[in-house]
Amino acid sequence: MTLYPAFAAYVKNAFQILGSVTAMSPGHCGFIMLPVFQKQTTDVARIKHRRAIEDFLIKGSMSYGQEVAVLYNKPDSGPRDGRPMSQVCVLTWHTSYKDSSPWSESDAMTSGRIGPYPLIRISDMVGYDEATRPSASARVEQRGVACASQLMEGLLEGMSVRDTDRVVWLDVIPNRQAEFARAALAKLLESPNATKTAKYVGLVREEKVSELRSALESQVYNWWDSNLDVAPPKERPPSSTAAPTAETLGLSIIPMVKGKPSFPTSVLLNRFSEGSVEQDAIKEMEKAFHAEFGEVPSSRTTDKSASGDGDGHRSCQVCDYSVDEGLKPLDCSRRATLPTKPVAEFTQERLGAVPGKNGKPTMVLSADFHVWLLNTSEEPMDVPPGELFGFGTGAYVNQVVEREAEETTGLVWRLLSDRDILAFEKSPLPLCELLRKLTVEQGLVDIDVEFHVLANKMHPAKADAEALPVSFRWEVSSLTSKKTCIYKPNAVTAENGDVKKVSFGGLFGSNYHKVQSASSPPKLMPVKPKVYLLARLTIPAGSCVDLSAAEAA
């Protein structure tokens, strides 16, 4: 824990796990690398974090005071390398085994120090290139795989390890480069046929799994390539993060629909997670496919009602987007790229803010009623599609609204198309997909939308046949009287500049016409309006983005 994590709940859970594991056996021991001083922190913060660690150990009935100094050297570094040459660490075990822990015999405990171990050169660190340099915190966090490997061995020196003993490393808070995981894998690859090896278990945060898996796979394959006498050549699977190529991702069989090629969009997209590199590649492949063969009704619209051929059966259970010039609903899983600027340059007057927690960005409403997302952390932040904020308490009022832009005191419930996005069970869905879902999954055939008129979209009539309905598509229009309902939130004031996410929208006051989009869902009725992010964003470390400045958001 060279760098103290920013998420308090994450640290608390980690120490609870450590307490449970050390209580299981006197042979279980915890090794904690206390935070070190670096330019991006202060001595006050370092002492505060160290005190927090002591409190967690006391609450978990674990011993404290067995400090061990880890010594480093920098054989390949220049004189300007200011990284510390030592680090204070703690060996801890459960207080029930204070007189019986075998770790008290280790050299680390008897001498009070281990090392020195070589630190990695800064130019060899992960994330170093000609344009990017590791921050001060990243420089002290990365020690290098060789250093981590020697550190793991040094902790075991002096221990009386028997043939029947097993060594298991449980990495509760891995650093961002997972160096102990890489060191454990390197040790395993050094002796692939050994019958007695140490085991490594790392508790990695979900958003880091894909990156770590790719790094470990690369480490295995590099070893594989250089040890052909031990491991025979084998075709490796494609990387989970590398962009697919024609060799790794392509179509060998093209489905034909009534003599025309059709791209199997739903079949391919469902094989990969939303927002993944593979999905993006498939969408690009689909565009190229349509450019070469033309965008024709796919296998989803091969029935009588969708194609309008006059033969076949209505068996299609998906929405047919071959009408309306091929317009489709907004793809909420797409990745949007918006202009960013450093947080230090954000000087707009704030009406209120929702502090960022648990990996989420800080949300700010500026005086010009623009919604900003701020990433104040030291790492890039991936913001998935989902709910941004609500409008707090309020009431619905039914009244005639001619033009939505003229209604500034509330949020108007009005849909313009069956492609408009609604929030259903906290997930954004186009209206037509929502109606299809209710029909297919719940058997609700005749559904109304409050203050709106629905009518089936129809294919153009042919000379010898009547017009046929388009599969799960509707014409949507407001009432002739223009009557609808308006949600009028209660006024919200920001105490000390902060508000809760559920009532953040109330800061708009009498300027609700400046909210970029606010829609929510027998009869579909509006519940409470919420604002959703309908794209995936990546906000660089220490940067902010103006959501209101781009309609694509």
TrEMBL record:
Region (Disordered): 292-314
Source superkingdom: Eukaryota
Designated name of the protein: Nudix hydrolase domain-containing protein
